Every structure is written in structure tokens, then in C-alpha cells.
Prior knowledge:
It contains seven helices and two strands; from the N terminus they run H-H-E-E-H-H-H-H-H. By secondary structure, the chain is mainly α.
Amino acid sequence: MNPARITLKLVLDQAGIDELTLDSFSQRFNIQKKIYLAQLMGLDIGYRFGWYLRGPYCTDLTSDAFTLRDELRAGETDHQGRQLNAGEKQRLEKAKKLWEVPAGLSVAPDQWLELLASVHFLKHIAYWPKNTNRDFEAIFTALVQTKPQFEDRKADAQRAWIRLDEFGLVRAKTLE
């Protein structure tokens, strides 16, 4: 198990993804979005994301997750006895608060992760012509153009924008 996959295993464990089966789309999706969001909180473990059908996606992360799963099934234990440092744990705890679905919001956890990650990506990473306004209305328009299923979910997207802003991620691309 290489150092990157050891770190990935430790982060996944701390994020509550203890059993790495990758059998369901939902688990693979959650890993993508949670790692993306954890990195925004300053826990940079080296994955770079592009835009895909369901928002930010990293092929290297997918590859590492499947390799890690296979290594664990083969009995590798290189990760045992290791842990994230205090700062890494703190950043991950903040990320868990970020991706927690707000009380009173009736949106599925997968959809909430997709909204958070997609709104952030469109605000800070997607290409926009110079001097383009990137306020909520512009981001929501771009979101609906790429993800029409959110056309009737403007209030949910607005809540994702507010949550990102509460964590400083509307003004800043990432936290240190």
C-alpha cells in the first residue's frame, strides 16, 4: 500500500466510510464528493478534480479507491497503527459539518453533496470569461445548464451557497 492510499484509507475511516466495498454507485459517489469537500477545508491529499456528469470527479481517486479496496481484500495492513495528525482530523471534522444536510432541508444526502461540490466547482474552478459575474444567480444558471435536474431546486442550491459561505468557501477557493 503506497503512502497516498494509506492516507486515503485513514481519511475514509475518519469520514465514516469504514467498509470500502465500492459495490454501489452511492458509495463511489460519496467518496468523490467527500474527498473533494475535505480538500476544500485544507486537507489536501493530492487529488485534482475535473467536471463530470455529477459534478467534480477525479479519475485518480477512483483508481486509488479500487486499488485500496483490492489491497485491503488481499489482507494488506500498512495503514494499521497510523492515524491522521490533529490538524488533519480537525479539518476533516469541519468538512463533516460542511457536508451534513441542514435540519429542515428535504434533500437526499447524495444530492446535497452534489450541490455543495458542484456550486463550489462552478464558482471557483470552472472556466469563466474574464470579468464574468460569479454571483449565486450566475452559478445557478450554469448549474441548471449542466444539470437540468436542479432547475426546480433553486432553494436547495441557495442553501448550498449559504453553507459554503458559512465556511468561507464562497469568498475563498479553499481554506488553509
